[in-house]
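User: I've been going back and forth on whether these two constructs are worth ordering. Before I decide, could you fold them both?

Assistant: Sure. I'll take them in the order you sent them. The first construct and its structure tokens:
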Amino acid sequence: MDLKDRIIETSLTLFEQHGFHGVTVNQIVSESGTSKGGFYHHFQSKDELLFVIHDYFISYVLTKAKETIETNDHPTEKMQKIIKSFVKVFDIYKPHISVFYQESIYLKPQYVDAIKEKRQSYKAVLFDVIREGIEKREFRSELPVEITVMSILGMVNWSYKWYKKDGEKTIEEIADIYVDLILHSLLTEQTKKDARFKEYFLENHLTASKK
């Protein structure tokens, strides 16, 4: 692990235990086994460190979403892959997400603006996929695009509150459940019958496992 990541990992543990204002740069430096020079080489301030913690997980989902758009043709397939990568972020970056939502009120305005910009980019990808799905008649045309996107974001984002790595369901199983719920709501009846998308639904997972 390089120094930057070591500082982030240490700060995550400290912020979870003591809160953002309960931790000093000196504590982070001491616990991570570095110097103040080492800290300030990577971060201008504790505020920037909190911003970078958020940037790790929003950059991950945004990169995955853009890759999906570029490498898949069907809106249904795009949505399935976007949901899967979105859900997985709560496993890969669970400490980052918990700390961010707990401490984000302390961010300075310039960092809040940068975060909003990336979140808007992610929303824009979802808007484009929903619109494309409606235009290609894979998604139900009566669904309002904005409410649909905000519903998906709200439902999946709330996972950070209850997801546990040692819980009953793995993150893969949880992702499959979200895919099933969202696609059952989004897809037209005709699209649901399309053999190319059969594997996205839980009933077909169960059927396959019994064979």
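The second construct, handled the same way:
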Amino acid sequence: MLDIALRKQHGNFQLDLAFQSDGAKVTALFGRSGSGKTSVINMVAGLVRPDQGRVAVDGRVLFDGEKGIDLPPPRRRVGYVFQEGRLFPHYTVRGNLTYGMERTPASERFIQFDQVIDVLGIGALLDRRPSRLSGGEKQRVAIGRALLSSPRLLLMDEPLAALDGARKDELLPFIALLPGQFGVPILYVSHAVDEVLRLADHLLLMNDGKLEDSGTVEDVMGRSGFAEVSGRRDPASIVTAMVTQHDRLHGTTHLSFPGGVIRVPLLSAPAGRKLRVRIDAGDVMLSLTRPTGLSVQNIFPARVVSLRHESGLVDVGLDLGCMLHAQISEQAYADLGLNIGLPLYALVKTAAISRSDIAEHEPAKDEHPTLAEEEI
């Protein structure tokens, strides 16, 4: 459990937030650049001292301003992975990996060298210098080095920000495995929606040094505040679904969810894989009768459960076995005669859901990601 309350004045910028994250494998700090995310994890790590506050991990107090507790970084048992690997250039990969391990008393080590090598797939890299590694390989080694200090908490500060799309896609599955494989929770900083969808259980939404929202990924991403901070055009719904089949002839994958079956662009995920799907409210159309003669393939019976008017638009909350939000104009609201309890149909175009709006979640426990051939 994370129990964190921090206050810090940086010139004209004030950071002031408090949160608890109980039982989450990955807690994501999400917000625009300059919102204070990195400052938060630097204070948790002990690299920056708060003006006031408290930091505790599983009941162990790392900092308490009132009680005068301020453990130095080496005693906090917190691993840190930065945006760039920051590997020691004069050490081999093996030397970088064992650096933190050798500084952790043997009696406190609960993560084994061979286990880290296996999970991260870096056995072939042990004798290389950092200069001979790709960006993705450097980050895997940096993660391994942090893990081998046997931390009670792993901090990750936008570890994929410096990577291109291919290397980012390569590394995400490795990060997703870490909490389950090693029992170490992660506090993960990001401003990328796809990373949060893929990794996080608990989401903290930061803006201008303050905590705007907190809760499950599904709840926070579905509220209007997330759309404003993330820069997305509409609020959205996060639907948990499972792959049932691939229709390669028509280029679609079928996903089962509480509302039925939704077709999305063709994916490579195997049948049975659990996914999260982000559906923008502005991409959901409404019809009072089941439409025919349309190109839209995803048509779901639903019932209106909430109506919220804001800035000339109406957010329509729909129950179709799970919550789905539609955003329509006031004119459309009036023409449809919407009211609470009204049955209707929700329509979602397959093409409106991009692959970046779909993320695997909770990988199989016995499944390890594989390296791209050029990385071996």
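Notes on the second construct follow. Residues 2-230 form a domain with the Rossmann fold fold (CATH 3.40.50.300). The first helix runs from residue 37 to 45.
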